[in-house]
Structure prediction request, 527 residues.
Amino acid sequence: MVLTRRAFMRLAGGAALALGLGACSTTNPLNTQSTANGNDERLLRSAAPLPALFSQPLVIPPVIKPVRTDQDTDYYAITAKVAQATILPGMQTTIWGYNGIFPGPTFEARRGRKVVVHTRNELPAPIVTHLHGGHTPPESDGYPTDLLLPAAGWQAPSHAPGANHHQPMQGGQITQTERDYVYPHDQRAAMLWYHDHRMDFTAPQVWRGLAGLHIVRDDEEAALPLPRDERELPLLITDRAFAADGSMPYPSSDPTGMQMGVDSTYHNGVLGDVILVNGVPWPFVEVSAARYRLRIVNASNARRYDLQLDPPPPEGSPFTQIGSDGGLLAAPQELKRVYMTPAERFDLIVDFGRYPVGTNVVLTNRLGDGNTTQIMQFRVVRQAKDESAIPATLAQVERLDPAQAVRTRTFDFNQAQVDGQAVYRVNDRLFDQQFIAADPALGDTEIWTLRSTTHHPIHLHLVNFQVLARAGGLEPEDAGWKDTVRLTPRNDVQIITRFTGYRGKYVFHCHNLEHEDMAMMANFTVR
Ligand code: C2O
Ligand code: CU
Prediction:
């Protein structure tokens, strides 16, 4: 059913306002078109006036300060709430933000030092926070039904079976208004990120702004002469689209946003036509002619990027990769381009000292169309001393040995048609909270074969893994410790991991957030 805007306002305006969405949560307030760029999802087109490319200065999200610290723990307080943000010049956008900003504040953590995040939910909907890449006990991992209910109260809506083809899932550890998430950080230095993980609603809630950075550091990394301070730039890349009034509507199948499900046009993933870096559309940043460390996360719902530099440096490769999802590589590797699926992180050194002062260097995306081929611009504005270096050995990285694997499992990530609708499943099953798809013992090493006929970024909670093999050969982006791996059509991937740290139930799933909300997720239990 297609509602006119007026009919929609009559029918559902109250509920939409109550959700903090403003009046623009209609099913299709934006024009849509499919894209021809290798992302076969659907594009939302903005109706709002957009800024010129590279006219807005890059912003670095503020680092959050602990409310108190003791010998081994830093305590933080954070509130998820509705807020107004200026994303497009001269316009206000309603967002859902941790502490009211998008991205949320950045956490600076230390390996072995515990972090406790006291989280308060002032949003009009339940939330669940997952620290992506965290080696976290199950009760703080953000299991999708461990809801943190809103301060203002919550009446679960009576659900229709839903466009996602599964029954709404309930029955996790529910808390009201406030709770603590506890992160022991018994893990390597790495750039993690935190985001919403509410069952069936992750995609719209992340789209509205619930994502931020969480950097873990350690002495091994701090001892290296890598670029640091203002020459270390965290870059959280997302795509969004804006309605004429500046709002950032998500194409839910239910205009009130109360029922789960994306409009079926977008079942393969929602793409926007505006690229935001740290929440700024196509920003620019002035840099010195020196090495910079770019710590990039693809925090987009569904968009894949193939990053390049334009112009490439006169000599040498554009990127030197020093780290991946799980921290530093053993040794740097030179890359011409970086292909990123959602949730992956790449830790890259770019030497702007190779360019003459006055050069503008654009980070481009070969998988885009029109303006989504452009990400951001670096303006080389001054000469500078550069004492940084890229050591030939970065870190000790244990290579997991396939001979130690005690078992092998195979998971198929596939789309099927049920009653003429797309469904996304793992081994032919939609997510079922009770069904345990894998039950490694604590300390077991296992090899998992992941298979698919389409594109899916596959993420495991709790553990990092290594990519052992890929049909057609390993890709450079498979290097190092990973927590998310790209599956491409008919290109089986083998990963190896050791289940350490904590017993309990965790999820693994597709990180295309639309697929995730359509229940392309499964449990593993560490016993
Ligand atoms: Cu970044 Cu289970 O997700
Ligand atoms: Cu998927």
About this structure: Residues 157 and 258 are 7 Å apart (CA to CA).
